[in-house]
From TrEMBL:
Signal peptide: 1-21
Keywords from the named record: Hydrolase, Signal
Protein name (database record): S9 family peptidase
PANTHER family for the chain: DIPEPTIDYL PEPTIDASE FAMILY MEMBER 6, SERINE PEPTIDASE S9 FAMILY MEMBER
Keyword Hydrolase: yes
Organism: Alteromonas salexigens
Domain Peptidase S9 prolyl oligopeptidase catalytic: 434-647
InterPro entries for the chain: 6-blade_b-propeller_TolB-like, AB_hydrolase_fold, Peptidase_S9_cat
One Pfam family from the record: Peptidase_S9
Amino acid sequence: MKQLFYLFLLTVFTAMLTGCASDNNRLTSTNDITPPPLIERDVLFGNPTRYQGRLSPDGTKMSFRAPVNGVMEIWVGDRDNFNSAEPVTHDGNRGVPSHFWALDSEHVLYMQDQDGDENWHLYSVHLNSGKITDLTPYAGVQAQLISQSRTVPGVVLVGMNDRDARWHDAYRVDLATGKRTLEAENPGVAEFYADHNLNVRLAMRALDNGSTEILSQHNGQWKTWLSIPQPDVLTTKILGFDADNTGVYMLDSRNRDTAALVHLPLGQDTPTVIAQSDKVDVTGVLMHPQTHAPVAYVLDYIQPVFHPVERRYAAMIQQLNEKVSGGTEVLAQTLDNRYWTVYVDESDRSPVYKIYDTQTGTLDQLFVTQPQLDNHQLAQMQGVVIPARDGLELVSYLTLPLTADPDQDGKAEHPAPLVMLVHGGPWGRDSFGYDAIAQWLSNRGYAVLQVNFRSSTGFGKAFLNAGNHEWARAIHNDILDAKDWAIAKGITRADEVAIMGGSFGGYATLVGMTFTPTTFSCGVDIVGPSNLVTLLESIPPYWESFRTVFHNAIGDPNTEEGLAMLKERSPLTHVDNIQRPLLIAQGANDPRVKQAESDQIVTAMKERDIPVTYVLYPDEGHGFQKPENRLSFFAVAESFLGECLGGRVQPIGDDFDDASIQIVHGGEYLPEVKQSLQASVQ
């Protein structure tokens, strides 16, 4: 009886594939262009050779992350001498996700959680002794680095929430001993700001009406200094104090649409505008490490461009712009501001870390992150602007497979199946540059379209706030409008489009499956919320100050109208509508979108005999960090998309080895996946 039941579900699943391909070679039958060789998944999603390059603040040493026995560790060596580099961490499990230098150049700092729970601890590595110290060794603490200063060497200012899980108190922590000293107890604020003596001077507090205020501390008393209206909350922030600690530099969208770079003396309310654009927000700002004044800023519409703040920096920035393109970013500066660590990110080759000498204008390579990528022909990302139905401009990125666009000019010679790849947030954005998922999909024969829908950041507060109360409404319409644009351009066909994304992108996928159930051929949801009510009920306690931002954007569960909106905009409410194949992936330790979000929609689908494949990782959180888990997930997703859209599929091989993957439900809908998983555990 059980086998008959599975056969029935498989029959239903096959019927749901109307418009999907059952022949994985169908993509190459529409034209006579030979597809490029398959890029193996471990090249795309395995560990890079080296990553996250940095120079020490004094410029004498370099650091980077690189694998040791398959685990990403921190390496340190003499500058430009890779033979001298040695690992200084020995995690051996999930690896170190990020690192940075203490300003004394004697310690390297890094953040690490446990199996994706995001209870970050801050660690210090003393390079001379090799000693590793947990600077925040308290049960359940979630640490946040607030600041460090060259005028207070050997000390960092760290926020810790061990007293009250909702609020981070500020502590001075000695890097050598780990001893902490309370600098400021949190009075119910979201963020502290310290001056260059590491004295906490300002704080940001969220108010019940969705606005925020900047508080100033005088003689131990906090008083309101600035009010930030609700529409400006996500586009206005303090960058840091000026040289004499009497004012701050800010990104400020008050009284304008786009965020400008401004200077504002303490106690005053009228800033001096340093730089602004009518088209996009000022985003990245480079500060001089000694004078603490801005040197350059970045405007990023389709690609980022550096601009000098003053004429004396013009030649320096012009030389940098002439030597880079793509998604270039300055990641760090030495204390004398001579050397900048630059991440050069073209879309169709491996990203490269380089060192820019601001005195000579030379840009020298530090290392290539994934040199094996240069053995493959990658697709070029194209920036496009798509009109939404109400006239908003949607800055988007299109990646066409070589079989559909041999010239790689962004114009499709043949239609190809399309994957709408939706970014998370929603308060984030897609940007130009190398994207492993886009390259993976295009290599398999799919076109990829990444849309900066309303609520995306960087395009002004009107564009961002246009997404408020528009989850599963205008935001979804932006995605639909982008799909229609692609069809009209001959990029794809209406019945050959999938939707895929993580976090908010996962929610958007579930919206596509439930609110417009025949629009997409299939969907891949990665850690996406299915029930907006339970999502808000389960947000981490340390996000308490951010709660009103969610209420303003989605709906306030404390009001009858808001609660009704949350329920109506939840994919779980409309689960009966699902008609197309769905793959769901979840990390069991995710503190943002808890496992219950995936569990409940899978349970609802099971109760209705609606096929779904559910993949769970017990040692992951909000996304999949361990390379063996990443490889296993993309092997499943590749098989799933191959069944749905007919793209090329690399055999699973040993991609399940050492992964924690569990197929909780629906393995029978992907027989090769189920068989490979069974073989890997035998």
